[in-house]
Amino acid sequence: MRTNSIRGILAAVAATCAMTLAATACGASDPAADGDGKDVASALQEGGKVTVWAWEPTLKKVVADFERKYPKVDVELVNAGTGDKQYTALQNAAAAGSGAPDVAQVEYFALGQFALGRSVEDLTRFGAFAHDKDFTAGPWSAVRFDKAVYALPMDSGPMALFYNKKVFDQYGVAVPTTWDEYVEAARALHKADPKLYITNDIGDAGATTSLIWQAGGRPYKTQGTKVGIDFGDAGTKAYTSTWQKLLDEKLLAPVGSWSDEWYKGLSDGSIASLAVGAWMPANLATGAPGAAGDWRVAPLPQWTKGAKAGAENGGSSLAVPKGARNKALAYAFIEYATTGAGATSRVSEGAFPATRADLESKAFLETAFPYFGGQQANQVLADAAGNVGTGWSYLPYQVYANSVFNDTVGKAYVSSTTLAQGLDAWRRASVKYGTEQGFSVHE
Of 30-34, 65-69, 207-211, which range is least confident? Predict the structure, then answer.
C-alpha cells in the first residue's frame, strides 16, 4: 500500500497505543468514543443498510440468507477490486474520513497493516472473543493480536500437494513426501518429457513466504512500530537451497499462475503438481475441467523426513473499517458470514473452513470429490490445517513488501541472481521502506 499518510497514522499510533502485532495490542475500544453505541441485538432489531466490500463469490449466498433471516437489513455487496486495489481504496477512505464501507474483506497478510494504522475496529466489544475456540489456530492467530480482534476469519489456506496422478503413474514417479524427493521427481518427469514440469513458478511472494513458514523460517518480527527482518535463519536457507536446484536445472514451468497458459498446463498435465492452499479444489474443477479424475491431493512434502509441518497460503477475513456507519450491524453480518449457518453455507459453496465445527464435521470429512477420482480430499486438507506451524507473523506493511517482490527476488528467475541474493535485496527494500514510513527497523 503506497501512501504518504501512513507516516502520520503510525506516529499517532505510537503516541496513543504501544501496539504489538505479535504479542501486545491495545485493549478493546470504547464504544462511546469511537462506536455507534449499539449492541448487536438492538442493531439487528432496528435494521438498516450494510455495505460490504468483498470479492469472494460465496458471500452472495450468505447475503441472500442473511437478508432472508433479518428482513429489516439491506446488505449491498460490492466488488471494489481484489487485493491491492481494494486496500488502496480503503486507505484513501480512511485518510479522507469518508467513503468507507461497513465491512471489508482483508487478506490475513494485509490485516496487520490496517490494525496498526487503527483503520479497522477492534471487535472485542461486540463479543468477538466468544469465538476464541470456534476457529482453527492459523486463521484465529492471524486476526487476533493479544486482547484485540480486528476481524473474523472467512476461510483457511492450509497447504497440501495437488498432483496429477495420471502423469505420475504414467512415468512411474512416486508422489514425493519430502522436498528432496520433490526435486528428484521434478528431474524424472522433465527427463521423461522435456515439456513436462512438476510445477510452475515465475516468482510469487505468497508462495515463497508460505514455504519458508513451513520450513520453520520466521523472518518477520513486529512489536508496535519496531520491526525485524532476517532471511538468514535455517528455515529460509532450507527453502532457498532446495528451490535453487529447481531454478538452476530449469525444472519449473515459466508460467504465471492464473494465466490461460497455466490453466492449459493443469488441463493437459504439463504442469503436474501444485503446492498450494486448501482453497484450490474449486479452482481446478472450474479452470481445468478436462482433467477431472486425473488429480489427487496428498500431504505437503516435508523439509525433514517424517515431520508433519505445515503452513497457510492465502485466506481472508472480514473487518469493520473505522468509517463504518453502523458498526454493530456490520459486526452482526460478519459474525453470521463467518460462523454458524453462514460459515457452513460458504463451505458448501466451495470455501475451505476456518471454523473447527465445519472442519471436523462428518459431512465435510467424508465428502467425495469426483474431480479427484472420488477421493475424500478434505481428510488430507483437515490434517494439514492441524499441522500449521505457530509463531508466524507478517510485516505491518506486507502489502508494500509483496509489491516489490518481483523487483528483487524475481530477478532470480530471469538472471544469475540467486534466491538468497534476491531475498536479501527484498529485505533491504523492505527495511528502506519501513524506515521511510516511520518504523524502527532492525536486521
Answer: 30-34
CATH number for the domain including 106?
Answer: 3.40.190.10
Q: Long-range contacts of range 420-424, CB-CB < 8 Å, 24 or more positions apart?
A: 420/231, 420/237, 420/240, 420/244, 423/231, 423/236, 423/240, 424/231
The more confident residue out of 193 and 83 is 193
Q: Give SS3 for 107.
A: strand
Does 1 map to a domain?
no
Average pLDDT over residues 429-436: 96
The cell numbers describing 58, all together, are 460465496
CA-to-CA distance for 158 and 210, rounded, in angstroms?
10
For residue 346, report the phi and psi dihedrals to the nearest 5 degrees: -70, -35
**Distance between CA 73 and CA 288 in Å, rounded?**
39
Quote the pTM value: 0.87
Provide CB contacts within 8 A for 18, sequence distance 6+. Answer: 24, 224
The reply to whether 54 and 191 lie within a common domain is no
Alpha carbon of residue 345 to chain centroid: 20
Tens-digit pLDDT profile for residues 196-215: 999 999 999 999 999 999 99
Residue 123 and residue 211 share a domain: no
Closest CA to 115 of 397, 411, 435, 406: 397
Does 10 share its domain with 94?
Answer: yes
Longest CA–CA separation in the chain, Å: 68
H-assigned helices in 97-157: 108-116, 137-143
- Would you tell me how many other CB atoms lie within 10 Å of the CB of residue 4? 8
Q: How far is CA 35 from CA 49, 261, 328, in A?
A: 16, 48, 8
Q: Which of 256-260, 336-340, 345-349 has the lowest mean pLDDT?
A: 345-349
How much is the pLDDT for 33? 33
Range of the domain at 344: 6-156+314-359
Single-letter residue type at 305: K
Query: Is the domain of 229 the same as that of 124?
Result: no
φ, ψ for residue 120, nearest 5 deg: -130, 155
Running DSSP on this structure, what letter comes out for residue 415?
Answer: S
User: In angstroms, how far is CA 358 from the centroid of its own chain?
Assistant: 19
Instruction: Let me know: does 371 contact 281? Beta carbons within 8 Å.
Output: yes
Main-chain phi, psi angles of 356, to 5 degrees: -65, -40
Contacts of residue 327, defined as CB under 8 A and 6 or more positions apart, other chains included, come to 35, 36, 38, 102, 121, 126, 320
205 and 257 housed in the same domain: yes
Task: Report the range of poorest mean pLDDT among 163-177, 260-274, 390-404.
Answer: 390-404
